[in-house]
């Protein structure tokens, strides 16, 4: 699409999802372009090994680093182009190794394979926690199958839900659009792509160079707070206006100039406008609610940190938080010892953490009602293949399916429902539903065998409840993520449910979380990649092959690295602080949650307990979505259909963890893109918005990866920049007063 095209005719300010799908990404395809080549297999396997090794290492690092799809896309493009230009094409060997220029479908296959391998398997948490805290080591074979069963369970469930999670137009999966926009710009060798490619390269180079400054040289740019600079001695100012350091404050009116934290892998440039509005409402309420609960000393809030996830002792006091000694509460049979708990006292949480648990439950119940009210058709599709009426004509079923997928277009009555790219995909042989059903059955069988051969203490019925819970979470929260672009983190809620089913057993709770919550994570990953392959027109069977192979490679190398690190750094990983190179913080948190949420649910969360509203909050969650729904029925043109209540509830506790100084910059950029640019410069929005998003994320990912090994301690001793006014390394980076409690 050229810049001379009438932008207002292409995309007006009330643009629908179809506008984005047809004008940002080309609805055209050449099915003859090959995806499976020596080059794609070689690079796909190589980057899968790379991703599996690094994600296994990163799990035990003090800093969190994620290999994003954009980073993998940049790396695979450089390597693919190098092979295309560097390997001769003459002769039989040359034609085999390098038959033609590196193409988009090869590139997309590599990304999907490597991305599947680069997500650290949740089973690593179980393996690490059982070795570090329970003295039990699973055999190599059991460990590998444990990882695979946890991942493929989610794959099987999500694969059966493609009619809900992938095919409909409403399931936008916004985070995939920048990747596809980048691929089209890099591979469409046409005159009209020269300027977009130039823009991409300029933005990529600029952010690559810029990020060195806030990441290493001048970290104060992570969060510039005028209020903290004006008053550097008030902890109240720190709680409200600070946020450049983890768990420091809410970041109100802070200005962040570090794209790594503005985006965090979820760029504000790709979120739909209704999602941004709901996020913004939630964040404003978050600041009000957190301050109100803390300063009114609800749940003894003033005794504990303003923000924090650590489980705390009741011996804590203001300014002196004391961690609850969970290892003393576990008996020799790996179950909770109530006598020891009576001596220690029940564990406690910071007020922000309690609110987080409350809103997770409330958000989940609201999500169920929201989806039923607004997306009934999509939800019905999650179980459509179970309709017994379809069995009456079972003999005709394969022929009906074959005829349906031979049609090159979508039926006229469904054109407003399905993604327009779905019509192009029907030219390819589909990945049959029974393939995913077989993956699901195999994962269930393997999981049950593991549970009864590894002293997991989770009974078969507990596993089935976890799997069903994963099914429901994928259908509800997976669909919401597809619509809004927001990834919902509800692991604590899953662990609490598992605790109620089998109280007092932390080990069983870890396995329940593995098969309940991990199913959601892996199902979302598979669905997101399926949507990416649909946008990029990669054959479904090739996508299936790439995902399964990448996951297998990633799990194997995840385990090899994790097992080696645990063996060689056992004592370090057991310490609370770790070192600047190795840390067991993630395993510690996972185990701590299993002990508290899984071991003591009745004592902590049942009616009459200190934190009873964590569970009671579920009930009003069922009612909240009716408010905008009924308002929309009464005033259909007032915009109430743009309010996503579960998203608002989720963002009411969004600032409970991490670096929050980026929140104002995030919304300024997001609204500038999705409102101003889309309304007043629609052609620029269509052509450059998602491309620039990919360039910003790509350049940032590459330089952060380099800096992690060069100066941040990921590959050896850290090399800190000298301390000066812009690098307050001995305190909060934004120079807010340090608040320990």
UniProtKB/TrEMBL annotation:
Listed transmembrane segments? 41-60, 66-87, 108-129, 141-161, 197-217, 276-295, 434-454, 460-490, 511-530, 542-560, 613-631, 643-669, 690-712
Going by the UniProt record, its keywords in alphabetical order are: Membrane, Peptide transport, Protein transport, Transmembrane, Transmembrane helix, Transport
Domain of life according to the entry: Eukaryota
Instruction: Identify the Pfam families for this entry.
Output: OPT
UniProt main location, coarse: membrane
What membrane topology was assigned to this protein in its record?
Answer: Multi-pass membrane protein
As for subcellular location, the record says: Membrane
One GO MF term attached to the UniProt entry: oligopeptide transmembrane transporter activity
Signal peptide range equals none
Q: Which GO terms describe its cellular component?
A: membrane
What InterPro entries does the annotation carry? Oligpept_transpt, OPT
GO annotation, biological process: protein transport
Asked whether the UniProt record includes Transmembrane helix among its keywords, one would answer yes
Does Kinase appear among the keywords?
Answer: no
The record's similarity note reads:
Belongs to the oligopeptide OPT transporter family.
PANTHER family registered for this protein in UniProt: ISP4 LIKE PROTEIN
Q: What is this protein called?
A: Peptide transporter MTD1
């Amino acid at each position: 699409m050229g810049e001379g095209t009438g932008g207002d005719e292409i995309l007006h300010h009330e643009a629908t999802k179809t506008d984005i799908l047809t004008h940002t990404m080309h609805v055209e395809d050449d099915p003859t372009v090959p995806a499976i080549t020596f080059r794609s297999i070689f690079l796909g396997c190589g980057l899968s090994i790379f991703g599996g090794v690094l994600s296994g290492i990163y799990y035990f690092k003090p800093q969190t680093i994620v290999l994003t799809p954009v980073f993998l896309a940049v790396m695979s493009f450089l390597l693919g182009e190098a092979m295309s230009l560097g390997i001769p094409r003459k002769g039989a060997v040359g034609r085999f190794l390098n038959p033609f220029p590196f193409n988009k479908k090869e590139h997309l296959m590599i990304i999907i394979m490597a991305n599947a391998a680069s997500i650290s398997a949740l089973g690593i948490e179980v393996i690490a926690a059982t070795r570090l805290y329970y003295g039990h080591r699973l055999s190599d074979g059991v460990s590998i199958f444990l990882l695979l069963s946890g991942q493929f369970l989610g794959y099987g469930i999500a694969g059966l839900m493609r009619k809900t999670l992938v095919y409909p137009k409403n399931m936008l999966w916004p985070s995939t659009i920048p990747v596809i926009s980048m691929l089209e710009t890099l591979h469409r060798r046409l005159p009209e792509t020269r300027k977009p490619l130039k823009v991409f390269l300029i933005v990529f180079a600029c952010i690559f160079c810029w990020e060195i400054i806030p990441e290493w040289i001048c970290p104060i740019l992570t969060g510039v707070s005028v209020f903290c600079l004006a008053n550097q001695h008030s902890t109240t100012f720190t709680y409200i206006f600070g946020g450049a350091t983890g768990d420091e404050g809410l970041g109100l009116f802070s200005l962040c100039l570090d794209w790594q934290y503005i985006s965090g892998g979820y760029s504000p440039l790709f979120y739909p406008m209704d999602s941004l509005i709901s996020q913004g409402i939630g964040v404003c309420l978050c600041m009000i609610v957190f301050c109100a609960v803390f300063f009114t000393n609800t749940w003894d809030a003033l005794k504990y940190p303003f923000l924090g996830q650590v489980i705390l002792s009741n011996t804590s006091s203001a300014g002196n938080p004391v961690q609850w000694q969970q290892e003393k509460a576990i008996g020799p049979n790996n179950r909770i010892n109530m006598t020891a708990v009576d001596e220690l006292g029940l564990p406690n949480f910071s007020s922000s953490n309690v609110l987080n648990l409350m809103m997770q439950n409330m958000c989940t119940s609201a999500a169920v009602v929201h989806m039923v009210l607004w997306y009934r058709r999509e939800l019905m599709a999650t179980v459509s293949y179970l309709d017994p009426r379809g069995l009456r004509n079972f003999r005709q079923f394969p022929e009906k399916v074959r005829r349906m997928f031979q049609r090159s277009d979508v039926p006229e009555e469904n054109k407003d429902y399905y993604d327009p790219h779905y019509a192009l995909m029907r030219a390819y042989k589909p990945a049959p539903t029974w393939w995913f059903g077989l993956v699901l059955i195999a994962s269930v069988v393997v999981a049950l065998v593991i549970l009864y051969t590894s002293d997991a203490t989770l009974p078969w019925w507990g596993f089935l409840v976890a799997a069903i819970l994963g099914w429901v979470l994928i259908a509800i929260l997976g669909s919401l993520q597809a619509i809004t672009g927001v990834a919902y983190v509800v692991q604590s809620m899953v662990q609490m449910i598992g605790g109620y089913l089998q109280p007092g057993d932390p080990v069983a709770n870890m396995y329940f979380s593995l098969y309940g919550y991990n199913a959601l994570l892996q199902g979302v990953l598979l669905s997101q990649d399926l949507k990416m392959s649909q946008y990029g027109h990669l054959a479904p069977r090739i996508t299936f092959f790439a995902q399964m192979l990448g996951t297998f490679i990633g799990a194997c190398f995840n385990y090899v690295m994790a097992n080696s690190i645990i063996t060689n750094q056992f004592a370090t990983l057991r310490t609370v602080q770790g070192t600047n190179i190795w840390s067991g913080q993630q395993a510690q948190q996972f185990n701590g949650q299993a002990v508290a949420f899984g071991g003591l649910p009745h004592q902590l969360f049942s009616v009459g307990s200190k934190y009873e509203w964590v569970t009671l909050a579920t009930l009003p969650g069922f009612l909240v979505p009716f408010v905008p729904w009924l308002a929309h029925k009464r005033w259909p043109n007032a915009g109430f259909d743009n309010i996503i209540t579960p998203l608002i509830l989720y963002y009411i506790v969004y600032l409970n963890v991490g670096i929050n100084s980026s929140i104002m910059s995030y919304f300024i950029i997001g609204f500038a893109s999705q409102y101003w640019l889309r309304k007043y410069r629609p052609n620029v929005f269509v052509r450059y918005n998602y491309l620039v998003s990919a360039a910003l994320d790509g350049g940032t990912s590459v330089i952060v990866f380099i800096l992690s090994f060069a100066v941040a301690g990921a590959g050896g001793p850290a090399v800190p920049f000298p301390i000066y006014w812009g690098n307050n390394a001995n305190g909060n980076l934004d120079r807010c007063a340090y608040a320990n409690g």
